[in-house]
Amino acid sequence: MSGYAGLLAALVLAPLLPGVINRTKSFFAGRRGPPLLQPYFDLAKLLRKGAVYSTTTTWLFRAGPVVGLAAMLVAAALAPFGGVSAPLAFAGDFLFFAGLLGVARFATMLAALDTGSSFEGMGASREAQFAALAEPAFLLGLTAVAWKTGGLSLSGMLGANSFATWSGAAAPLALVCVSLLVVFLAENARIPVDDPNTHLELTMIHEVMVLDHGGPDLALIQYAAALKLWVLGSLVVGIALPVRSLAHGWAFAASVAGMLGLCVIVGVVESCLARLRLTRVPQLLLGAGVLSLLALFIGLK
Amino acid sequence: MNSWIDAVLVLITLTSLVLLGASRLGTTIRMVALQGVLLSPLPLLLAGDAGITLRAAGLAVATVLIKGIGFPWLMDRAVRGGSLRRELDPRLGYNASLLAGVLLLAVAFLLSSRLPLPPGEGTPLVLPAALFNILAGMFVIASRRQAITQVLGYLVLENGIYVFGVGIASHQPLLVELGILLDVFAAVFVMGIVIFHMGRELDHIDTGRMTLLNDWEKE
């Protein structure tokens, strides 16, 4: 089974993840909740609709969703899954990966600013601030993993991650896992950083930036968001579960199970935690960065 | 065995970092209590080949009793007795404190790489964890205004020295270690009583505002 199976799984299964999160949340709230496949239905519905564009917007607004999805597709090709190398892998590709996340964010922010809505501008400003704090945590954490596993690409790092690595360096790897989990929550606009269900523009971060998009554009954005959830989640799962030691089929199954488990964890977090005050979010991300740095120090020792 | 020691040391380091970034007095006291409890298995884990002796077990029990229960109880009593503000009011903000903590962490790791351990003593993480706790304790004492936070900083500092002592000089007699514990206990006991009465008499324990406490009249 080659790395293309992982990419295919990402493309096909990604919209399932928000469904699992929503199902977990409704279980905690005592509701039945939407069907697991609801995100697929939503995407199909949105794709059949026409798009409406405000006359104040320019091509930047239309480019936002396309660039965002394109960046996420390349990122999905970089992220290894199921213990095998990704289709695309080269030394230092984790910097490229972080850059792709940045490009997608930049395109979304430009599209948001292009609408001229003050709420969307506020959302873009917050997104930029939090992303700037999440990125050091992400890169420092991956540097610690690279140091411990000796791999310079994402595939190399996660591919070399085995039970032996864990027994030799449990403390730094566990710290990186926690740190990346916080980055995962922040980047995907989940609680405690952002509330994906909020309907108050003043407090939204990610959702407010895409308020003016509709129809196929919104479908692209939602699909890109699901892919981002999958791609970043696969990194967390890849570090937490050293599946390389298993046979290929089992490694793949274990990774998919890990992704679903991660979504259940996100659902539990969203059900049990309140959203942080906006002024406290930087502290959370800073804390994640400190964890990554501590892991790096311990790894260097 | 080693990975357990490392896990405990990392957790101790994390409690100190949380303490640096925490804004609530209750959280900081709880962190110091947690740190005291986390310290207790160290003598048992670091006992090494000798196995678990009565001496190590006694030290572990004494540590939990004094550092995990005694000190937090004293601090809690001082907070409840006096009219203290629940929110801390540091000279440096919480995020800046956390960043300073990162700096101290780097200094601790750098220093410990220059100090070679005697062979067969402790694990590589003992020294940085001990140094970081000592530095973090000093930082808390220097950067916080309220007397009670300064006492908590003193406890963190002492915990660092404890890690150092248990990790490096594991062969010192039980009497010495218990003596040190008793000394610290007496010191914190006195400080707790002082803070309790300060809070009652002055309505605040802000050390920055205590420059006018004089016995004599100004000329």
Task: Kindly describe this structure.
The complex is a heterodimer of chains A (301) and B (219). Chain A has helices at 3-13, 16-29, 38-48, 59-78, 93-114, 118-149, 154-159, 163-168, 170-187, 206-209, 216-240, 248-272, 281-300. Chain A is mainly alpha-helical and 301 residues long. Chain A has one domain. The longest helix of chain A is centred in the middle third of the chain and has 32 residues, at 118-149. Chain A is globular, with a radius of gyration of 19 Å. The model of chain A has no long low-confidence stretch (mean pLDDT 91). In chain B, α2 packs parallel to α7 and α6 (126-143) packs antiparallel against α7. Chain B starts with a helix and ends in a 17-residue tail after the last helix. Helix content of chain B is 72%, strand content 0%. Chain B is mostly helical and 219 residues long. Chain B has one domain. Chain B has helices at 2-21, 25-39, 41-45, 54-81, 94-114, 126-143, 147-168, 174-202. The mean pLDDT of chain B is 81. The A-B interface holds A 167, 170-171, 175, 282-283, 286-287, 290-291, 293-294, 297-298, 300-301 and B 3, 6-7, 10, 13-14, 17, 21, 94-95, 98-99, 101-102, 105-106, 109, 112-113, 124-125, 128.
